[in-house]
Amino acid sequence: MSKKKAVAIAKAFQNCHDLIPGLPSELAIECLVRVPYQFQSAMKSVCRSWRSLLSDSSFIRERRRCGKAELLLCLVQPLTPPPTPASKAVEESQTFVDEEGEKKLEDESQQPRVSGTPRFGLSVYNAAMSTWNHVAFPEQQQIPLFCECVVIQDAGKILLIGGWDPETLQPVKDVYVLEFAGEGSGRRWRRGAPMNESRSFFACASIGSTKVYVAGGHDDQKNALRSAEVYDVEKDEWSMIPPMTEGRDECQGFAVGTDLGFCVLSGYGTESQGRFQSDAEIYDPATNSWSKMEDIWRFPDTSPRGRTAGDCSSGLRCFTDGELQSERKSETKDDSRKWNLELEMIQFPMTGSSIFAGSLGGDAVVMIGGRTESEGKGVMMKTTEKDIGKWSHVQDIPSGFSTLPFSHASIYV
């Protein structure tokens, strides 16, 4: 870090000249940005200056700039059933982080359960440390089933949006926010402003540095929705945007193009459940309108969820197995001719009882469950932008974390 840059950061915080007694501010910040993320909660208790510095989003940006940020993969996934006595010892290495930032052993037998329905949790894989953990939710509450996980990197926030109420199994408007910048960062959940409409199995994506778009899904009568809305993270408020041309349930959302459009891929209508459409719709914030992209999803019997990964810079990747056959790469434009989407087919490295593909810091990753010990463990594989299609082993996924995720997002901390 340059001295000018360090001084500029230090001036943004009160008493930062005394971060480490006897050291200039730029050297003190150089030291602090190199401390692993797992110790940052304790560091905030040292003094007000450290708490102020570590709680600001610019601290995370500086860690990224100097290559010291750690990448977390956040997964909304079903939790495993309570362990049997024979497997209890294996499970005891898994920890939660409670609201006060302290680690505690999970006792799933004390958690409320709905008969016949799974209990969902938020799992976090630290790519730098190769560790897995569950994140505790507020006491007496449960993460909504099938909620969408989305990250706002610049604001340092993880959002859980919509899904099903664990007791009524009805779609909800709920929004939960976990802060990775600010007071209590990485420890405390808060309620965000609810969506205008209850929905689940909808398209969702963060666009730019402050906005989250949602569209489609279904309502409490399982009707496919056309409606769409946008969340302003800074204002903590939702606004409706024009609806899509047709309802789309179980659709996939992502950012597309350098101008940051919102693409809603495939899905199906109320009367054609399970028959996935081949087209997509793209919302242009500049014109406040939707346009359609034809013949982009060519697998009518297969959901794009857990099969696709993409971002605005590298196009869209579709992960295939022996049942999905198509040309390796295709390119499609929408009817306005503004948006161009490149779709690349990538073969899975192996098969398993459950497969989920996504993105981890720009790389494509796939989690393959059901590999060992009665389907209790899995493996994570990765392919990079440079060596696309050449898979490398990341690690074996420990028991308790290899259930098929529903949604995911990654964030640097």
TrEMBL record:
Residues 82-115 are annotated as: Disordered. Gene3D superfamilies: Kelch-type beta propeller (2.120.10.80). Residues 23-63 form the F-box domain. GO terms for biological process: negative regulation of cytokinin-activated signaling pathway; regulation of phenylpropanoid metabolic process. One of its GO terms (cellular component) is cytosol. It holds the Pfam family Kelch_1. InterPro entries: F-box-like_dom_sf, F-box_dom, Kelch-typ_b-propeller, Kelch_1, KMD1-4. It comes from the Eukaryota. This is F-box domain-containing protein. It comes from Microthlaspi erraticum.
